[in-house]
Design a protein that fits this description.
Layout (H helix, E strand, L loop, with lengths): L1 H37 L1 H12 L2 H4 L18 E3 L1 E2 L16 H8 L4 E8 L5 E3 L2 E2 L4 E2 L5 E2 H12 L12 E7 L4 H15 L30 E5 L14 E2 L5 E5 H5 L4 H10 L1 E5 L12 H5 L4 E4 L6 H9 L5 E3 L28 E3 L13 E3 L1
Parallel strand pairs: 2-3, 2-13, 3-8, 8-9, 9-10, 11-12, 12-13
Antiparallel strand pairs: 1-14, 3-4, 4-7, 5-6, 15-16
């Protein structure tokens, strides 16, 4: 026992020096690694290893307009992305707007962004646990840079074969500051003005069209904006085309949609309206089984494209040929047609009093027939 103690006494300064060097290296290397790992180019490079898989397993072709049967927006499944700025399947990671471009090239035609109030009420994109008060992302991304990434990739005919398909941008506001919402609207006008829908499709106001029941080809190469919450009275309200505060669009968690109280009601609703299904609010980015959602006719089922798990394989299988897929006929609305009534043949059917003839009846005093009129 004395030997180890003696050895420690003899080398204590060496041990302390080594420990000091290790601590110093940690404080030097950690910030450098964080800066390198948080660099947008590094995030994009890491994401490329995941997203490069999609072109190898898909052969995406655009919907093609006009369609032969004038089908509506609610008649189609659309490939949809959640956690759209995360490069992989892990939370507590750095995020980047460059991941949006990768997700769009992978086939996503719906992108959802969570918007928060940044410095000076500048809209930023991130992901937070607002109940517990901590971030799932190690940084935030300017909303403007996200819009530019979408504008430059979603409708780019050279880099994106699906550029003519409708594109949906879902905005989830985690702030009630009017300044943030108004700034969001202005950024959309500055970056995506040429792709915005005409005011007749605005959700705001009376008499607006229900785009869920409009022919899908009306939105070819256009940007559809959906949102909800407290946007009333803000500038973003005039740009929103569909709100999940209305009966035309439902926003359900995976748990709510996969285990509905009345699945027949959900199926019938999806014949004329739209259901978007978001991941359950859990601290991970894993995907859920989308098969049951497709069977209920839910159109916009959001998945994490950065997580190449078995559930994502099922999802990609549905969208292997394209990102806008027509639902099965039995899940689409079929108008009830009233048949023209067929009049009876007067030779065999008459509205005259029915006459029973039988030898057991007395003769009819009016006709002399051996019958009685009932």
């Amino acid at each position: 026992m004395e030997q180890p103690i003696s050895w420690l006494e003899q080398h204590k300064y060496t041990i302390l020096t080594v420990m000091a060097i290790i601590v110093a290296l940690f404080f030097i290397i950690a910030p450098l690694w964080s800066a390198l790992r948080g660099n947008p180019a590094t995030v994009a490079a890491l994401a490329n290893t995941t997203f490069a898989t999609y072109p190898k397993v898909t052969a995406l072709t655009p919907l093609g307009c006009p369609t032969s049967d004038n089908t509506k927006l609610c008649d189609y499944y659309i490939a949809s992305s959640a956690y759209s700025v995360f490069p992989g399947s892990q939370v507590y990671d750095f995020i980047s707007d460059s991941v949006l471009t990768l997700a769009i090239k992978a086939g996503a035609r719906l992108i959802e962004l969570d918007i928060y109030a940044g410095d000076n009420d500048k809209p930023v994109v991130g992901l937070k646990n607002e109940t517990l008060g901590y971030d799932y992302a190690k940084n935030s991304v300017d909303f403007e840079s996200c819009c530019r990434a979408i504008s430059n990739s979603a409708f780019n005919k050279v880099d994106t074969p699906l550029s003519s398909d409708p594109f949906i941008l879902s905005l989830v506001f985690h702030t009630d500051k009017r300044n943030v919402m108004d700034a969001t609207a202005q950024i959309l006008k500055d970056t995506c003005a040429r792709y915005l829908l005409h005011s007749e499709y605005a959700f705001k106001g009376q008499g607006s069209k229900n785009i869920a029941q409009e022919p899908i080809c009306n939105f070819a190469g256009k940007l559809i904006i959906v949102s909800g919450g407290s946007i009333s009275g803000t500038n973003i309200e005039e740009l929103v085309n569909l709100s999940w505060n209305s009966s035309n669009l439902r926003r359900l968690t995976y748990m709510q949609a996969s285990q509905p109280y009345d699945h027949d009601e959900l199926i019938n609703s999806n014949r004329t309206n739209i259901t978007m299904v978001i991941p359950n609010p859990t601290p991970d980015l894993k995907n859920n089984n989308p098969t049951i959602l497709f069977s209920y006719g839910c159109q916009w089922n959001l998945m994490n494209y950065g997580s190449l798990d078995s559930m994502m394989e099922l999802y990609v299988g549905e969208f292997q040929q394209g990102s806008v897929i027509l639902k099965p006929k039995e899940l689409r609305y079929k108008p009830v047609e009233a048949k023209t009534p067929v009049l009876p043949d007067p030779a065999t059917h008459s509205f005259q009093p029915m006459a029973h003839t039988s030898p057991i009846y007395d003769s009819n005093p009016k006709t002399g027939d051996k019958s009685i009129v009932i």
